[in-house]
Amino acid sequence: MKIKNNIIYILAFVLVGVVGCEMQEEPKFPTADNLFSTTEGANTVLNGCYSGVADFNYYGADFMHLTYFSSGLFTSNRDASLTDILIFQQTPSLNFVENVWQGGYRVISRTNDVIDNLTLVTLPDEDEQNNILGQAYFLRALTYFNLVRLYGGVPLLTKTVTVETLNQPRSTVEVVYTQIIKDLEAAADLLKDETTQLAGRPASPAASMLLAKVYMTLAGNQRAGQTDYWQKAYDEAIKVYGKYALVGDYRNLWIESTSNNSVESVFEVQSNEENSLRLYQLFTPSNGNAGRSVWGRIKPNVECYDLHAAKYPTDPRLAATFLTEWTKYAANGNTSIIKTYPTFKNRNNKDKSYPWLNKYYIKDHTRQNYNTNMNYVALRYADLLLMLAEIENELNGPDNAYAYVNEVMARARQSADVASDEPADWSGLTQEEFRAAIMFEYRYELLGEGHEWFNDRRRGYEHFKANVVDIHNNTPAYDFSKSRDVELPDNSRNMLMPIPQSELTANPNINADDQNPGY
Amino acid sequence: MKRILIGITFLLMTVLTFAQQGRTITGKVTDSAGELLPGVSIVEKGTTNGTITDIDGNYTVTLSGDDATLVYSFIGFKLYEVPVGDQREISVVLQEEVTDLDEVVVVGYGEVRKSDLTGAVASVQEKEEVARQYSSVDMLLQGRASGLQVVGNSGSPGGAVSVRIRGTNSLRGNNEPLYVVDGVIISTAGTDVSDPSTDANEIQAPQNGLTGLNPRDIEKMEVLKDASATAIYGSRGANGVVMITTKSGSKREKGKATINAYGTAEWNVMSKKMDLLDGVGYANYQNERSVLEGFKPGYHVDGGQVYALTYDADENPIIGETPYQQVNWQDEIYEMSMSHNEGVSINGGSEKGNYYFSAGFSDQKGIVETTRIKRADLRLNLTRNLTSKLKMDTRFSMMYQDGTFAQAGSKSGGNRSFTKQILSYRPLIGQDENEEDLDLEISNPYAWMTDFDDKTKELRLNTAVSFTYEIVKGLKYKINGGLDFRKKDRSKFYDVGVFVGRKENGLANYTYLDRYSYVVDNLLMYNKKLNGIHQINAVAGVTYDGVSTTNRLYEVANFPDKSLRADYPQAGQTVYRPFSLLSAEEGIFSLLGRVNYSFRDKYVVTASYRADQSTKFREGNQWGYYPAMAMAWRIMEEPFIKNLNVFHNLKFRVGWGLTGNQAISPYQTLGTYSTAYYVDAQNSTLIGNVPARIPNPDLTWETSEQYNAGLDMGFFDGRLSATLDVYYKTTEDLLQEIELGPSNGVSSMFVNRGTIKNQGVELAIDGVVYDKNNFTIDLGGHISFNSNEVSDLGLDPTTVWVDGKESQEVLYYGGNVSTGTYFKQPANIFMEGQAIGMFWGWKTNGIYQDADAATAGPNFNGNANQAGDVIFVDQNGDGNIDDLDKTFIGNPNPDFTYGFSANFRYKRLSLRMLFDGVYGNDIVNGYNMELGYAEGLGKNIMKEAYEQAWRPDAPSNTYPRVGYSYNEYLSDRIVEDGSYFRLNNLTIGYDIPMDWTSSLSNIHIYASGKNLFTITDYSGYNPQITSFLNDGTIMGVDWTGTPDVQTYLIGMNITF
Fold this sequence. Notes:
Chain A is mainly alpha-helical.
């Protein structure tokens, strides 16, 4: 009987022991309660937002895949499978169409989380709390601005998604822009100024510059008399004037030792070797370094070179922008020098028929892999000067606009070992001529920096057709009987990307009827 | 009965004559309870000389030969043999032969007499020499029981296997049954180490989680299929339960041990190759494409040889001096492999207890030279009667394996998969590496052999200790503690020869799993027959089950010195994934009880109940309750049936029960964060935190309700038996990881949503067809029909077009098959009123033969067609092929699965055959999305796709033009019939006559063939699709599965 008693004790013990166990989960992962109790913790969540911006699907690579290939200004070095998007035949399930959307919304959900949580608490360091909030608003606005320009009216989510708020329908373009303006106004308010902001992070003027771009986009091809957006754009852009400066030598913007977080940088996506931006792989050919390990997917079209060279034959920016001679590594380690267009005129050679974009070319070609510390500059001051010139020209004509653009011209001339006489200062243009010229000037100054898809389209399809499609199709260098060269179609659907297939598939509130026209 | 008959036959056929010797042996025969057995037949083996025991169980026999062996046989007891040696007195304990009806069947937390069984339970028991041929338990189950569908690929050793009982129960992904080994739950069939890769396009090939249990050691398996049988496992019973009992020692006189040693050697050969372009065909294809694109051809073909063709500055052709070497990569890479397997077991016992020990070693090689698994395992099962009332039972097993799984390659399935690249790499050697390879993310198949490692080391310990104390007669208390420990290390290294290693200058990643699961059961068991008419078998218990999992991950790249490969991660300069630790705890606390009551052995009622509390859900949703009821009527016992003299057994069963499913990852109800990285202005890495998921606080159990009715029949003294079951099962509140629109910020989340139904019929027949003149034929077969339907999804309807008609349907889509260029879309649709996971894509109607037809046809996503393009059917007639034109193009669910066995025995020779098959399912052949189109890339393709491609001068309605590139989408062009019929196993065995030795009691030699033939129309490597076994959102898609093999095996088994 003693044993029986013992067994009962054991049973009772085990039972009590088990029931006493905590049957609640205690995960060994960070939670919102912990993270948002200090500014340090909140900053790590903000870092998470930035990592989304730097992600492969966003500025890391796919944003370039999507916007460069379909810009009409770039070509693919890939043989067959990328030619569809070059001639605007992107389908809703194309990787890049999907990934940019997905990458964008990842950033939006992360910024929503920061904004939701930080608006609930008051942390001891309120300035820093505001600065974090401001950055979250800035990133959210930037991302919605990219999405609305690429895809049109997108689902507008400004709160953390819960089970109840899953799968929102498309909002109108107007509603999305209203939110973007609201966010950027908040960001400009909350962010530290450029003198106190941490290096590498956007300061208050960055929000103003972005807001100016928003108003310029909303102004479209309307004249100052028809819309007040030019005035609004001016009010924002002028806040930024003088807050940053141009670096002395244009070439230094594209050299690893000098390019990062320069005085000219307004907003820059940070990178190091462990967390390298993949975009450098896109612009360096696979056999362009010792590691033979990159992709070399994107090259500028020949008319980009031709137009620039015709306008400013001795512009030092030409050499900084285009790489027309490069070192090719063979599998056995031997190297050879490859000369491309414009030296090579034939249209049948993959390596030679187009120049490379020098800006993101990995210049140390002895490297074994593609990792780099080089950042990506999403907004820089030269752009602001060109914007101010364009706005001023729209509002008041060229008289006061020259000063802005000529700052850029002066720096360009100095960007050579021996200062060049090109590009000369602008003068004596009509408002119309100035307008036409400035739209090309964006291309010369900023080619390959992620703006052309938007700049060429914001004035409407006719502008796009005349300045991109027609120019391309009439470039004499091309031989459209060779598949290396493609003729661009006259197809206005390319003003927007299709809504991605996965959204149509998985979101019951967006279906094929809601697809953008033409897809 | 069957075995006795075989035994007697066996006895009779060894009749040989020997010289008289005249030695006399005496002894006593008792049963295991010590009762004396009168009338036992004792025969000197190989002679007709013999006697029977008297009323007191005593016997005396005079031997006729020198090296005699005595054979004891008695109805109802197992045949027993003793080599006499120089003994004078031999007393023997005979073990009861368990007959059909008195056989004890293991059920959850106890066992019942087979006659008292009320649920649908299939028993699987396989001959040792056959069981040993399988390296995992799940593969052994294939084709051997009704209601079970096992999918695995013997061509990739150590690869994942899927077992489904009675169809798809859950859309959550893991439909694996619960495995219970000697009472301890081992629910890891679908688990594997976490993926350490930071590259979104790299997915490691899954491996089998059901390691550490050697089929050799299995006494028998019971497959619990209906809810009345599985509800005792409550929240983990919904997918069915496989109860595995490992072997125990058996008693022999004087505690003598039985020693058994075996060895096998096997050869694997690839069973099917694909018909791709050879070197000349490939050169022609590339040249045709170049010309079509406006370029000059790059190859010169002459006299069956291919030469490089280049051009000088004036565009004059230069023909290479030496021809390229032409190669068929499938012949080059896949080769016959040889594996071997050895082991020994020792068992014995006495009144005090018994023991079973076994140890084994196997060295398995794959058909790719670098695939190899070495495995050693041992088991020790001990039972001991500590007092007359207290019994101890310990079971311990240990397994260690060291494997290289090169064959699965990298991202088994995508562009980067090894298997895929063997097919698509150009069949020419000798040209400078083409930079396009990098862009296409492909590598020379040779490089996979030299520049890729995927190494796994795994240690598995499985122990169970139980004490059973008999409080009073019939009432027992049992405490059972079990531990399943699994430690698995997997490392991969990519050297610069393969794409991933090239782009990273060498990359190594590591993943380590430590998983402990433990269980404590406290059970009170009552089993007694009262007044000879009331049999009560009851159990009540409290259990706690815990799982603690830790995963450690690391990834590093950029190795200046790669010589030490993954063995020296310190040599890597760029850390992609800093050391990461992911740990998770989960637990289930349960109360359970069951009563099985039998009245006059005629009417049987079972009721069971289990309440489970899980840590995975939040308060309010934590408890799940699982009742079950079942009844059986042994009609056989009714006089009006008995008098028919037709039936040996006739039993009608009916049951109902609820079971649950909670197998989601922990923490899904909580909003935790995971790690991401960013960089500061000084180029230092910053830690970032990102929301890991959209938390769903309302998550709860998925509940299955199942009805079952069954009929067990036996005829001709049990020589023919049949079991028929019908069932109807609904699963509600399905736990699903649903795909979300990417606008939600994450791509999926867990919800409870929807209802599915499964219903089916299972029939199993087993019989001794012939048993005369030393010749026996046993035949067995089973067939299972299952049909399922998505009955409710709880979503708003959307517009679809089916067969040209518009309708409003409630649906959602499955997961994207791939992350790459091809098949980045779902293959399956889950639509109310339809079978689960129907294929959803575009119907096609041949090829546009001319420009006019192409112009007249609908646009493709807004893009115009040209002659030679595929004709897609415009379901909604809007002149544009888009998502709205998708419709049903196939069904991945089979109409039925079946298997049958045939066993022949003639004297010492035996032949066993097992066939299995599946009928009526469709497969999406992912290979053909690329191989079936002359797209114009530098990759190789199917011969047919090039030769029969449409050309202006050679119209074809089967394959589109060279250069056609809208092939990355799912259409009915790649949907195929997946039915197959297969000879799973054929084993011929022979017992060598033992008259030449006295130290051995038996030598058995055998030869086997596995998978000797497969009859199927499926054009891929293997109609058993293993691509997405653990992902319920992708069904029936062959995304570059590995080749299948045929196995030839010889083996020997020696008993001392």
